[in-house]
Batch of 2 targets.
Target 1
Amino acid sequence: MAAPLRIAHLLAVHKAPVQVNAFVRQLSGGDVYLHVDAKSAAALTPALAGGPRISILTGGPVIWGDISQVDATLLLLRAARASGANYDYLCFNSGQDLLVRNGLAEHLARDPRRIFMTARKTKTSEHYFWKVRWPKATRNVFDSVWHPHRVLRYALLTLFRLGINPRPNRGALPQGFGFYRGSSWFAIPGAVAHYILDYLDLNPSYRETFQDALTPDEAFFQTLLMNSAFAGDVSGEILTYLNKENNRARTIRLRDVPVIETSGKFFARKFDAAVDEDVVAHFCASARS
């Protein structure tokens, strides 16, 4: 009989500790590493459940569209490696996700080399994501299209498409690298996690190239792996059902359950018990890893 799969669940957390604790209880088949956004750590951390399989980490503040999102993910990967547990798989999710289907370990074990990640090679016209040195103020999410910082972002994008780059990135991708983008969420074999961390230790300039990029969390890992010997193992799919509207995650409601349960995905996002507690209760009662 094969040994049980060793799974590390890496969660980026910034709110709703009761809901996060419910998600952690669902993930009973693996160890859980929580990265708590420094902006909410003082209030959030004391309310998070502890235990021998739970590790709570706090790095710096995490900002949308900023390298801080990548740094939080790397902190989680490094903590999992430092544990010495030698995980077979590492699954990266948000604290606002939930498990929505049973059988995760069995699914991962069917092809233990498979990288659950989306990665699309971009057109040259999309290279503004990393070739522009984006001002920090523009690396954020804005509700209004007329927010001054959003207008500035659009102006820099327009100039780039016209062949003008007033703020060129000082760094560059390694020679011969293509640029790839995809979803922030992934599940990777342990050997791939080791490769990522070893590569970055030996090539610190790679991270520096993304220091002032826009939404680097959607390109950092994709670009690295698609330009490696692991490229053929990238599946082009993720394990998370994304409920998107206007390119932003829409909060899941009870009416979305039939679609989620027939999607074949193991996770879904995003949930908010303050918006619809019934859908949270539904999946917490029905799914365990």
Note: The CA atoms of residues 105 and 199 lie 28 Å apart.
Target 2
Amino acid sequence: MRILPLVLIVLLTCYAPDDVQARTGQGMLQGAHADSSIMPKSCRACHKGMRMAINGEEDSCLSCHGSSYSRSVMQARGYLNGNAGLADIGQELQKPYRHPVLEYRNIHRQSEVLPEEEMTISRHSECVDCHDPHLVSKDEPYAGLYGKRFGKSKADITEEYQLCYRCHSDSRNLPGHSTNKHAEFRTTNRSYHPVEGEGASEFIISLKEPYAARQERPGDISIITCSSCHGNDDPSGPSGPHGSIYAGLLKYNYEMRDGVRESEYSYALCYECHERNSILGDESFPYHSLHITGRNNQEGTSCFTCHDAHGSVRYSSLIRFNEDVVDPLPSGKMEFKTVSGNSRSGSCTLVCHGVTHNDQKY
């Protein structure tokens, strides 16, 4: 067997066998990693011998995107410019809630298809699932990755949610506790947070400026992104959903347990966009305060008990009941109604905390 010279191996790794090269008509190495002022030795910074193949690609990534000590080693060897200003992503990946980049090795395959089409394929999360190291740049973090698929054709990612959908939408191997986020955010749903497009409601009284149901003035924000809620809990740290101290890889605390005392901290995620005084003042729903704060020395229930933060196929106002807390009537009936879409007038039919609501009007 003929052994390829090291120089040829390096060149082959810099021109990955992907049709991106055919689409661009250029070599694969572009973007930030092609900048000689950042990486003076180019491909050799990542492709040193067989290190990537043996140790896993995250080790190569964290040589520069990890601890300050790792970066100093790369700088001393001339692989990294000392003024690169990189953050420690490795530290983020060790937080209590994180993408499990460090947990698994040797699962990712270059030829894999996302979303996964087979139930038996092992789920994983590697750096290259979200970033193409040959094309990524600060201004184009998703460059080189595909989002939508139309039969055998694939389209480039143009919106952040398309990146998230690669693993969190139509994958056949979704864990039992996971749901299809694309199905929940569809603009054809009865209600949804405005990720794929502006929301179903034309006016939401509790929204803080600059958030608005419709963009009517310059500066209005009527469409949010997955990273509006999911990401680093430390605003001064590196951006992105690498890790967080909050459950759900959220940027702010959101109590989903029942019976937790209401506070600005308990529902900080919701209160980032929705005015707390408006919610507790019952401006959008006449019993918001009662439900959230409770009564007779009994703590209230979580926003999560009644609302799904992604979307609801069946109901307005993001209503989708948490069935760990809410039960149907003995007849099996459980529903929420509004009068002409007015959230201040309607009825509930369900059992909550042992209290039966049988077409309970409000």
Note: The CA atoms of residues 203 and 213 lie 5 Å apart.
